[in-house]
Amino acid sequence: MKMSAILLKGRRMYLRPVRILAILLGLILGFATAASSAADDPAALIKALGTANFEQAEAIIADLGKTGDTRIVPALEAFAAGDLYVRKSDSQVFIAKAAGSGFTLIDPVTGASAGEAPKSAITKIKINNSLRRAISSAQGGLTLLSPDKVVRLQAADSVLKSPSAENLELLEAALAKETDRAVKLRMEQARAVSLLSSDRPVDQKRAAIATLQSLGGRDAIGILMTAAPTLDPALKGDLDAAIKKIEGTLALWDAAQNIWYGLSLGSVLLLAAIGLSITFGVMGIINMAHGEMVMLGAYSTFVVQEIIRTKFPGAFDYSLAIALPVAFVVTGAAGLIIERGVIRFLYGRPLETLLATWGVSLVLQQLVRSIFGPTNREVGNPSWMSGSFPLGGMQVTWNRMWIVLFSLTIFLGLLLLMKRSFFGLMMRAVTQNRRMASSMGIRTPWVDAFTFALGSGIAGIAGVALSQIDNVSPNLGQSYIIDSFMVVVFGGVGNLWGTLVGALTLGVLNKFLEPWVGAVLGKILVLVLIILFIQKRPRGLFALKGRAIEA
Amino acid sequence: MITSFFLRALEGRIVAMVAVLLGFAVLVPMSNLLLGPDNPLHVPTYVMSLLGKYLCYALLALALDLVWGYCGILSLGHGAFFSLGGYAMGMYLMRQIGSRGVYGDPILPDFMVFLNWKQLPWFWYGFDMFWFAALMVLVVPGLLAFVFGWFAFRSRVNGVYLSIITQAMTYALLLAFFRNDMGFGGNNGLTDYKDILGFSVQSDGTRSVLFALSAIMLALCLILASAIVRSKFGKVLLGVRDAESRVRFLGFRVENIKLFTFVVSAMMAGIAGALFVPQVGIINPGEFAPANSIEVVIWTAVGGRSTLIGPIIGAVLVNGGKTIFTGVFPEFWLFALGGLFVLVTLFLPKGIVGTVAQALAKRRAAQAAETPTHLNGKPQAAE
Asked: TM segments (chain B) (predicted)?
């Protein structure tokens, strides 16, 4: 980028004397021709092209550009492409296209057909590179006046990317006529860019720097840097200030991007941890097979997509919506079986439960490995989850966006369930005081079973979401389990808000540490911080208050 | 006083196990070195190394039993202490390679030359001396356990919380040791050892000595652990396990008791790691994996928690099973291991040794009930 900018500048400086000469010549010629034919009559100017030499042609093109008449754009294009011919008989200029043995002639201004001519009757108007450059510059200027808004915007963009002082007057003319706000803004920026390389007074340049500053972004810094060496020393302060300001904004956007990545990671953690938090909170047990429930959810998505792919290929975009309930039911059922088959015999022995569920997790992993193979399985993104959109100075990918929204939805749904439903009431009662709840007629074993099923089902739903951003392999769950524990332990057990805050904090913290110390060290630091944090608050950020000596 | 401390340790089961271990320490190397390869009683070197590996695992399980079985601390990070001990020994063995490495650098191990390091990092100093490395085998795991336990026990982190943060500890170390710029060989770990104290690590003689050392060290640690749990301190320890608050209310400093036990246990794990590395010939960050540490818990649980000899039996049985299983049906090993976790916790909560001991006690009680009443007054010496 920098390299090419330097090269470009070198070429421009080398060309400068030639251009000045050409403009001078053009002026003289302009006076000469202005007497005979009006300088702003495009037809006459184009006709003059037929007899002009290179220098004269360049001047004429500049004049054509100044007419601001968009009708001549096709003629200029044809000239650049080498399709402009002069008829020998009356030295009229036409756009000619080869047709059979001869050529079809088209009037350069009106675009009307002007009959045919044999090859011998016309001569091609010669063109060289400096003429081509003049043409493209004139074209850029002319398209600025195009009635089509999109074309104008494109023209302004192209001036912005390759500014030149020659376009300045035209830009200003276009600006004066412009009504559309977006185009006007872009033109103003283009004008500012062109102005910096022109010989306008210092005040205008200062204003131009201010405009560029409002443009922002790395491009603006690049433009200002390129302009810096040729600029008036009086403007040095303004320039530096502008660059600094832009860099400040960029840093802010970088921070915003980091926060976004952090929130995105945090929402993934939230999805993985929230089910764990519920089961831990209500039943006081750690479910080491929780990660495998996430994995089962991801594999459910895979199976659903496979069926859709082979049977109903049209419904692929709905595959995730179908996979959600499927995954919830599959993993919820698996959770219910595990609770009824293993865990209910181990109440009151949390450490043994931890070991037993670890065993279950090993069995599930191997089961999935035996059925689906040890390699990663391909889960596709539906169209509405692929791609990205720009937001200010950052890019937001759709799948991350949806996962953040999805996890928040799940969170709110669970919150409602906990606070507003009868089942939630029972769960909270058991969390607070199991024996008292039991005395009040709550069937605590069933609350345990369904809590476990619910926690597992949510893990399954999390698996559907994670299948979109992670590899679906038998080890999927293992990579999340420790992080999920950290979230639960950090946020406080059995507290949904704690889990939310814990997950988002850890996510953002991780992403902010990453650029400084690297991904692995960042993760280590987070782990160490949590270990230290636990010393301070052994029950997490939002601990349940109770009177027990030993929770 | 110290003699009586250790004499008290020599209860029947412990003596039997120590005798078996010492017998192994003598017989296995003898059969390896003295009997010819065609003799049916000959133990090939690879089998001896395998058995040596099991004994190191048994020592690790014993260390875990000390904290889990007698103090109620379920550490899911004992693999970290084991690996740190292993790394300390591995660093000594790396320094012994000298200029025989692939790159022939007299000071720097191969991986450092490969990473273009110019000089030895400070934490590698001193590891060319065996006594220093041996000291570090104890000091590094002990120090980590001390710092970790100091914070954790003081703020009364216990139960599953403690288990989870021990797991986080070993996970953090796993990630750290995987990094190349940590200076411990990164992904590949430390390997390609040549000799230990001047003897080649490949030779049968050295292997025999290492095996015998593992068995003897295990026996010594068993006696030490037994002495600890049978002392007055051990009684308090059991109290901490069963009713921590009550012990605290009685005026004991629970955190110090826990801390002491945790540090002793970590040092034992370090010794196990140090004996493991020369016999296996490699130490890499994979040893820090949380899954490994959880596996240690199942060895202990299978053999029998808080029996001291149970973990030894459990470690040997489960690892022997693993060796056979992964050779015959590699796909089913995880099913078997997972099933073991579930079945042992559900049906064998006391483990093999605990269940057998319970059955024996029941039978004895039944016999005692059958015998006439007038004999009951006599002291039953065998009890």
From this structure: 12-34, 129-153, 160-178, 209-229, 257-277, 297-320, 332-353
